[in-house]
Specification:
Shape: globular
Strand content: 15-25%
Largest sheet: 8 strands, mixed
Radius of gyration: 27 Å
Structural class: mainly beta
Strand order of the largest sheet: 9-8-7-4-3-12-13-14
Amino acid sequence: MKAVAAGVPSLAPFFDENQGLGRDDAQVTARTAHGGLQQGDTPGLYGGSKQPTVCDVERLEEFLTDPANDRKAQAWATALSITAEEIPGFLDRLTPVLLRHDTLVKNHDYKKGKAAPFDALLQTGIAILVDEQGLPAVKCSCGNPLRPFEGDTTRIKVDFDDRNEEWKGYEKASVVAVRPATRKVERLALVDVHEPDRGITRPVGTTGAEDTAFDTRERRAVPDLAGATFGQASRTLADTGLAVDFAGEGLPPDGALVTSSDPPAGTELRFGAYVTLGVAGGSPDGSTSTPPGSGSPSSPRDPSASAPPRPSDSSPSGSPSGSASTGPSGSGPGSTGPGTTGPGSTGPGSTGPGSTGPGGSDPSGSVPSSSDTSGPGPTSGPPSSGTSSTAPPASDPPAGSSPPASTKAPTTSSAPQPPPPSPSSPPQTGSAPPTVTGSAPPPGTGAPATGAPSVASTTA
């Protein structure tokens, strides 16, 4: 795993970096995320600024379509699983952004006429182009093609050399790898890397000329997601301007059913705050894990993802001290919709509960306790469900309603056998005692066995 620092030229680039194809911003402070996997439409995953552009897409297209560079173009296209003829259309659908997190990718140098792949950690502030599902596709300054990182984010060893020294703010537990959004994204919700209170809505395939701004401090309510699929819940949260987190290993299947959210439905959060989803049958391998506080063990994951977020993680921070922000930007008043709102959205809350108005709080301040995602475990669902906020999902039997799983239910099919006679006991008389009919539930209706599926949790 090679470290790639912002502003440091590539050793074997596809494009001459002296041509000014892209500009990294080494002054961007890394934000703390719920480390591990992030979906490409996560609000505020990426950043922008008031600068007209951070990547000259037209110049890159001219270079790759020049017959003199045909060999490079063929290698570039092959790395991205497209043909050389498809390069212009592919570039037209890409969007320039700045990384707000140290991000894992599969990078490619140009060596001996071919694209040479290698795993890399790109520093916060590097300018890249992302595709329609929010995946990193091109490193702007050198034109090198990028593909998703395929390894285990919890088992990385980063090599820092004398040209890419370990940067200030690097934390192994906070690096992210991007997975494709569950849909094609029409707009990206960015955060201004220099003014975190300012959000940017950028249509996919544009370079900044059509940006609209919004206030990232404005609060938005957690939608009622109980009964939705994980894919539907992820899209709804993104449209609302909130991020998803899943307290399990990997991401659950899109069709897994959501049973709860933490915080519960109706809670008002800043833009980009994480919401943890409880999911039934949600692990990629088909097993289930348990939401925090449910009492059953959950599957292992990156410590940074399972640990409670720090108070500052639920709101963007612009302080030079580096106070972390897990919340990416989103839509707000005056915008055309949160960046990842998808087709037809016209503003924040247009596809989910709207915000109640600007919070007005300083971006580096902590979120009120009602919206603090570091609180006790997730609830069993929205308040309207009528269940206690600490009760397990409705699909599980209430605690204490049946004997422990290790206790066998008494038989109901025959009378108990009389004890063997002893010399001192009187002889048996009369009929056998009546059979047991109500002291315990019939077999199969007691408490779930210890291997029964549990419930997984995810944060948005």
